[in-house]
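In this section we walk through a basic example: taking a raw amino acid sequence and producing a predicted 3D structure, encoded as discrete structure tokens. The instruction is simple. Fold the sequence below.
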Amino acid sequence: MDTPNIAELGFHVIAKPIGPICNLACAYCFYLEKETHYHKGEQWRMSDETLEQYVRQYIAAQPEAMKEIDFAWQGGEPTLMGIEFFERAIEFQAKYCPDGRTIRNSIQTNGTLLDDDWCKFLRDNDVLVGLSIDGPADLHDKYRYDKQHKPTFDRVIQSMRCMQKHGVDFNALTVVNRHNGDYPRRVYRFLKDAGVEFIQFIAIVERIDMAEDLINVQPPADRDLDKIISERSVRPEQYGRFLIGVFNEWVRNDVGRVFVPLFDQALAAWMGIEPPLCIFQKQCGRALVIEHNGDLYSCDHFVFPSYKLGNIHEKSIAELVNMPRQVQFGRDKESKLPKQCLDCTVRFVCNGGCPKNRILQTPAGEPGLNYLCQGYKMFFNHIAPYMEAMAEELRNQRAAANVMYRINAESKRIQTERAMAGEPIRRNDPCPCGSGKKYKNCCMKKI
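The resulting token sequence is shown next.
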């Protein structure tokens, strides 16, 4: 098999300019511990020299056909670097970006440090913001608190309002955990009512033993997952129910109005297109992470010494991403799938999920089963008829949002037939008005 040139295919790097340093101490943060991989007293700030090298090499390594180049900034908490750092980053981008290509920047933040100055900068430079928020206050503050264990919800909401006031483009990044995972509609409606139009749902899966070998962990003989997974981690079936709950609300009311990347990924698969998100692609290895000092790692979830590819001050990014072991890292995602996954009816959309979560064995004893497998199966099987309907609309050059009218029309038809047959409308039936809500939560109140 020919070795692919990852640089020629295009790749993405997440930059951690302040490493794992953060002003919060969220209970489930997997990156705070990365401080142990560096020397005590490390200067946790990306220098101007490293910043310029990174920007220059990253732009130069992208294929000429790629006309839009994305820079993603994360942490820790990247806003601790200050506005001036990102002003310099944009200056370097302008210096090294050839004519005819566009630079895009995004930043992931806990939002607690955003103010008017930050929001003006983000708006003026068209920076997309990923804001971490896990739902209303009682759900958000369960695990997202500062170093004094004080809640952060009010500060996050304040920053959201500030971004909305200044017209900053932002997404909500919502971690689904054991606590908020039982409230899908509440979380979704809260975010929608707050004016959020783009919502990413991220399942928290924390191994109790965070050893370097993240994959192929043998579970206990009694398959008691709580012995290897933290009490904060969402349970597989719970995650499936959560996604189904959100989807049922979205597909009846918000298609084309609220955007959930996970649903877009699924629709791509039903259209016969390999999902573009790395966790659902057949192979990975093209989404890497660079630390504050220029160290490049295979993946954001594999920042361990054995997955360090090198440093950009010693070898170029283009050389590092094409190292044989990085190519193999990407291929392993497909080649190490157990037979249960190969035979699965929803493999075309899941492709085994993220290798970081492949910590179980199948009932047949094969390693490499994704912890979230049961949840994915529940969800993808549930949405299949809806996705087929939306795909049909798109193939006929119609809007996917038409599925809402089809669903609601069918609901009205069923309710009409029941009414004509003299059957009463029950409290928990879909409302005959077609709102998508239960009768007790809609027209029953008016009556």
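Looking at the output, two observations stand out. The chain has a mean pLDDT of 91. The longest strand covers residues 102-109. In the next section we compare this with other chains.
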